[in-house]
Each structure stands twice: as structure tokens, then as C-alpha cells.
Amino acid sequence: MSDQQAADQTAADQTAADHQARPDPRSEAVPTGEPAVPSPVDPPTEPAPADTGSGRDTVASSGDATAPPHPTTPVPPAQTPVPTPAVAPAPAVARPEAPRPTAPRPMPPRPAPPRSAVPATPAAPASAKPATAPDTAHRPAARPSPVAVASADPGRWGRVDVEGTIHVRTPDGERAVGSWQAGAPEEGLAHFARRFDDMLTEVELLAARLDAGGGEPKQTLSSAKTLRDGLGTATVVGDLVGLRARLDDVIARAEASVGAARSARDAQRGAAVMRKGELAVEAESLSVEATQWKQAGDRFVAILDEWRTIRGIDRKTDELLWKRFSKARESFNRRRGSHFADLDRQRAGAKVQKEALVVEAEKLADSDDWGPTAARFRDLMTEWKVTGRAQKDSDDALWQRFRAAQDAFFARRSETFAERDAEFAANAEAKKALLTEAERIATADPTAARAALRNIQERWEAIGKVPRDDIRSLEARLRAVEEKVRESTDRQWRRTDPEAEARVAQFRDRVAQFEAQAAKAEAAGDPRRAEQANAQADQWREWLTTAEQAVQHR
């Protein structure tokens, strides 16, 4: 059961509980011109049979179509009270009051029903399902009405004169609302008080609907205005001033809700217009800038699907936006069609160029000029890539022919290179053996070492080429042997260098000269000059030591 249905059921339960012990209004006064209408809360019942022994006649009231007859179905007391609903159905719209007749209409005499006590707790209708606790998490709790219930103290709001006429007190004075001839005068006053309570229930149902935000505010406003307009002639007894103030409050709130709903509709319409405008702008951008045709086409389909889900825009604005979108889509379709037409022409030209490349590749497949032919095949591949694609079937067939010619040439070259690689591998083994011999050359005699290295170098060149991967390592080992022989020759030359020997003798002479000067100064009694001469002798002695070591380590 939804929140709205639960609220309506709860309102019906409370209304039935309030009037459980009231007498059947069909046995009381009925306003003239008002048909007996079934209660909007309880199911209709059969009319009570007339009692000829009563002696009382029912006299019509001044007539009011706004208050329906009171329900008569007995309701058992409920075990627990049911809270006042927060959401209620729209009340029945009041009808204009019928004119009061000049003379009472005779009715069949009926017995006065016994008056029963009002139960302490509300009761649910007999046909209703067991009451369940309302979901307080989803709707607000009901608030008590600020208008007093008239049936609690009918004499506070009206009176009955000696002729049985019922009067209600208003700010402008008393006003007759009907007459009562079917029982005690107090029962008649209570009957019209209950009619007031029924009207108050309708007003509170309208207020509860506004509080819960359910229903249509415009319908609630219309019903509240109808009830307020009929207060001046309503055949009820109760706090008419308070009820009018309550209706004024409900009307003000309903008007605010109507305005808010109108603003919400306007905001929704503005958002819809803005969204369709954004979609139109996006479509116009795609129609001019898009080059990813598949993705752009899918996006146009998605825009159209979203476009169809946006509602609430006036026809004129919607047509203007649709024209923009439709124009953009047509522009995109034309540009895409033109692109693919150009692409077809390019593919036809690419097919002609690739056929020429295939013919040349097939001619080169039998060539034995490995280097230039391989270079030409690389050029043909570059030209193939920049030519562009032909139609898929033609392009695939041409590529298979080109690839077959290329594979045939390189397969023949690979066979030839395999034979050559086997020869190069044998050469590499021969050079490794030659290197082993070279690395055993003794460098004690530089002249003999140079002669042995020269013989190995001549045999190295005679062996021939080796695999590319072995070239660097073999050449490095040979260079190491050559460097070792060259260093032994250089050491021999440095040890016999006459310039180095002359430089050592010069340093030795300078040391002896400064030592003689120091001895002469000490003999002459000049310690300062002796100290200076000794310092210079020490310096030249260090240089002499360094020169002698250099000559010895050559």
C-alpha cells in the first residue's frame, strides 16, 4: 500500500471512529431539496423503515448540499488509536445551497434512535483490513486542528428555539440553519454540530494533503475556495469564524503551492530547452568538425535517442530546436558522403599504383644482386605504405602478391647467406687459434716480438671474413697483442735515450755545484748563504732522483 493510500485509509478510519455512536441522520432532520446521498467514507446502507407509532414528523432545514448525510454503518472499537493521516484524498466539492421552503415537507414518522456514548478510542471500519502502524519515516505526523470540534459542546456555537429551529452564532448575529422535529432539541443541535465536524474533517484533509505535498495543489485550492464560499449559507453549527480562518490559511498555502508548482514547471521547461539547445550545439559542432565518422554517427544516434526523452517544451520552441538539430545532422551526412566518395576515388588510384609496385617486385624476385635488390625492396615497401589503401579485397590480393615476391627474394638470399655464414664461422675459429698463438709472444726481445707479430698479421688477413657478431671481440684481442709488443719496443728505446742520460748528468752537476757553494759559505762564516745553497741543493737532488727513476723504469 502506498503512502497516499495508507493516509486515505487512516483518515477514513478516524472519521468513522469520531461518529461511531451517532444516530442515523436518515432518522433525523434532512434539509429540504437535499437528496439522501451515501457517505463518502462508509458503504451505502438500506433506508430505515418508517415507524408509524412515533407521532413526530421530520421538518426540513433551510437546505445545504455541502454536508453529506452521516454514515450509519456500526463500527466496532479498535484496540489501538490510529493516527491522523498526513495525506488525504480530495474532499467532495460543496454544492450551492437550495432555497429554504416556506412550509415544512411532511415525512413519514420515524422513531428517535437511542443515543449511544462515544467510545474512548477511535475505531476502524468493519470491512477494513487490520490497522498497521504508519510508516513515520516516509510521511510527517499529523497535527491537531486549530479549530475546535463542535460536537464536543454544541451549545457553545448554537441553540434551538421552542419551535425546533436550529440557530448558529456568527459575528453578524444568529442565523437559522434548519429545524428539528424528530427528537429532543439537543439531538438536533448535535446533528448540525456533527455536520460542522464533517466539514472540518474535509478542511483538515485538504491541509494534510498540502503538508504531505500529495495530490494536485490546484484542485486543493479549488475545493478550499468552494468550501469557504459556502460558509455563509452552510447548515452547520460550529466555530464558523475559526473554520473560515483555517480555510484562508489553507487557501494561502495552496496558492503558494500552485505558484511553486508553476515555477517548477517553468524551471523544468527551461532545463529541457537548455538541454536540447546543448544537444543542438553539439550536433552543429559535429557537423562541421567531426572526422571520426563512425563515432560521430553513433553520437548522432545517441543524441536523437536522448532528444526523444525530453518533454515539457512548447511546440514552437521545440520545432525551432529540432530544425537546428535536423539541419546539423543533414550537413554531417552530406559531408560524410562526400568524404567516402573521395575515399573511393583515392582507393581506385591506390590500386593502380600498387599494381605497378607488385609488377616490379615480381621482376626483382629472381635477382642475385643481393645488396641493391634488398635496398630496392625496402624502397618499394616505403612507397607501398605511402600509397594508401585500395578496396579491401583488391588491397589484400595485391599485398599477397607483393609479399610473395619479397619473400622469394629474401629466402634465396638467406640460403646464400647461410652458406657464407658457415664459411665465416670456420674463419672465426681459425682466427681464434691464431690469436692464441699471438698471445703467447714473448716481449723480452722487442725485435723478435715485432717479427712474430708481423707474421701473425699476414696470416690473419689471409684467413678472410668472420661473422659480424665475432668481428669486434676478435679485433679487440689482436689489438691487445699489438699494444703489448709496441710497449716493449718503447721501453727499450727509452732506456737507451741519450737525452735522458744527459738530463740526469745535468741534475747531478747542479747538486754538486750548490753543495760546494754551501760549504764555501760555511767556511766564510756566512750561515744565511750556506742555508740558501743547501736548500737549492736539496731541490735539485729531488729532481735528480726523479730523473734517475724514470730512466730505470723505461
Task: Describe this structure in a few short sentences.
With 554 residues, the chain is an all-alpha fold. The protein is built from 12 helices and 3 strands.
Keywords:
3% strand, elongated
Structure notes:
The protein is mostly helical and 554 residues long. Helix content is 61%, strand content 3%. It contains twelve helices and three strands. A three-stranded antiparallel β-sheet has the order 1-2-3, with helices on one face. A hairpin with a 4-residue loop joins strand 1 and strand 2. The radius of gyration is 61 Å and the shape is elongated.
Overall shape: elongated
Low-pLDDT parts are 1-12, 14-140
The whole-number mean of residue pLDDT values reads 74
Count the E strands.
3
The structure class reads mainly alpha
Q: Strands, helices and their partners?
A:
Elements: H1 3-18, E1 158-160, E2 165-170, E3 173-179, H2 185-212, H3 217-229, H4 240-289, H5 293-309, H6 315-364, H7 370-387, H8 392-439, H9 446-463, H10 468-495, H11 498-523, H12 527-552
Antiparallel strand pairs: 1-2, 2-3
Helix pairs in contact: 2-3, 2-4, 3-4, 4-5, 4-6, 6-7, 6-8, 8-9, 8-10, 9-10, 11-12
